Amino acid sequence: MSSSDAVLAGLDAELGWVRDAYTELHRHPEVSRQEHATSKIVQDKLAAFGCAVHRIGGTGVVGVLVNGDGPTVLARADMDALPVTEGTGLPYASTVPGVMHACGHDLHVATLLGAAKLMADGRDAWSGTYIALFQPAEEVGAGSQAMLDDGLVTKVPRPDVALAQHVMPLPAGTVATTEGPVLSAGDSLKITVHGKGAHGSMPHMSVDPVVLAASIVLRLQTVVSREVKPGEFAVVTVGALNAGTTSNIIPDRATLLLNVRTYDSQIRLGVLAAIERIVKGECAAAGSPLEPDFEYYDQFPLTSNDPSVTARVRAAFTAHFGPDAVHAAKRQTASEDFSRIPDAFGVPYTFWLIGGADPDAYRAAAAQGTVAQDIPANHSPFFAPLMDPTLSVGVRTHVVAALSYLADG
Ligand code: ZN
Ligand code: ZN
Fold first, then answer.
1. Do domains 3-183+302-406 and 185-300 have the same CATH topology?
2. Class of the CATH domain delimited by 185-300
3. What is the whole-number distance in angstroms between the Cα of residue 378 and the centre of ligand 1?
4. Best label site of 53, 139, 258, 285, fewest CB within 10 Å?
5. 139 CA to centre of ligand 1 in angstroms
6. Whether pTM exceeds 0.85
């Protein structure tokens, strides 16, 4: 019997409480940095499993299971929910107005807790150190940095490898991995451009920031279409444009909120430079009286999977789930802050995807080419991963991936 078969022999007996933990978390979602009740549930469970429990970075929790000589594996889950009003109608739907686990982080917590329990109970079958890390505030790109700022690197053993997963709108029961970039780098940018206010009837007295901002929005559309090499990936979205209060006043400023996604650091720097150049150029063309202000926030690092770790974990997944259940992941345009943790330790990592969508509905939509319309994706008010088999798969992926590195017991 392989070590993962031995550890997973106890899975069916654990799925009841894993399901209860999941529905409890789903009913009581907590937004970024406010994961207090979630953190308490995680701490209590990890302590009950026999892990050494550390609170790091506000609501962050790390459970460490030292089990003899051997490699150290760190597995990470994120814990925060989103300011979304749930529309699923599920019996375990959110009871918190305007807050929902719309990205599946409740499922990440429940499955990593399940894996930690099995690793603790199955410690005769493996040797080494298993670290289950529960991170706050992923959605705002701040939680992993908060844990690092609070001394994560010195407070827990240095891992040899780091692992993380995300539930996505892929068929439930499937797993998807890829080498190299899997999630984009993300940058949010607040730009303030300055004009000169005047009465709406006297435009000749103004420098109109509304016209200036409109022209910036249009010109920014050329960054990806004209400056990024065809076939390379970049997204530049103007998500908000605000200026003025009423029809007969020309305001004195406009603000734009931009979102930028890239897979390549050179392309990222080129896109950000092009944005600044265009904004400054348009301000000069408009006769803007002040330089524009650029404020970067909610920045996410690139998630780029180590090829050899990914190959090893994929081989373990294929052996466990069978080749039909393990797919090549397409690069996602979404972003994550997980990679800051392995990068801070200087260790390789892999980040894989697990499906949560109804497989029949997914295949029907795929046959019609309407997956994007018909299958609710992460952050949708209708995002609702199937509990079966997704919870079981999510526990098994964590155990199988960890045991592909840990020594046999
Ligand atoms: Zn999310
Ligand atoms: Zn997420």
1. no
2. alpha beta
3. 6
4. 285
5. 5
6. yes
